[in-house]
């Protein structure tokens, strides 16, 4: 008997319900169990109870933006574990560098499709 394989988990953090829906469909097809959060504060509360393996993170959100969330996540116990992919419309090199310096593992431009997201997850070492 083999022990049950633990499901891989992904948290999608975006204030757009449509973006969350599109991203959910993509990562579920890659075999992840998906949860969603509408802003960074909601995501931080989620991570305090169950740290996901992967986080798809929007930059511009109400309540708490993605960069603030990422810095707080990385300072929590176990917060260095999740692979974080920033998914955003930010294109400036300085902004991308800021996200990576704050602890993002990869960077995905919106709009993205399944092929782009899967390749970025592969680069981050999770698919």
TrEMBL record:
Q: Does the keyword Phosphoprotein apply?
A: yes
Annotated keywords: Phosphoprotein, Receptor
Q: Which residues carry this modification: 4-aspartylphosphate?
A: 58
Source taxon at top rank: Bacteria
tRNA processing as UniProt keyword: no
Give me any GO biological process, just one: phosphorelay signal transduction system
User: What Pfam families does the record tag this protein with?
Assistant: Response_reg
Describe the location of the Response regulatory domain by residue ranges: 9-125
Name of the protein this chain belongs to = Chemotaxis regulator-transmits chemoreceptor signals to flagelllar motor components cheY
């Amino acid at each position: 008997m083999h022990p049950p394989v633990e499901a891989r988990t992904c948290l999608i953090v975006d204030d757009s319900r449509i973006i969350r829906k599109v991203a959910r469909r993509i990562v579920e097809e890659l075999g992840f169990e998906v949860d969603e959060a509408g802003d960074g504060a909601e995501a931080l509360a989620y991570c305090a109870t169950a740290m996901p393996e992967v986080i798809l993170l929007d930059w511009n959100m109400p309540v708490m933006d993605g960069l603030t969330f990422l810095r707080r996540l990385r300072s929590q116990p176990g917060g260095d574990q999740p692979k974080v992919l920033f998914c955003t419309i930010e294109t400036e090199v300085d902004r991308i560098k800021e996200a990576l310096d704050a602890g993002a593992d990869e960077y995905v431009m919106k709009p993205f499709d399944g092929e782009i997201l899967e390749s970025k997850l592969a680069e981050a070492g999770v698919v």
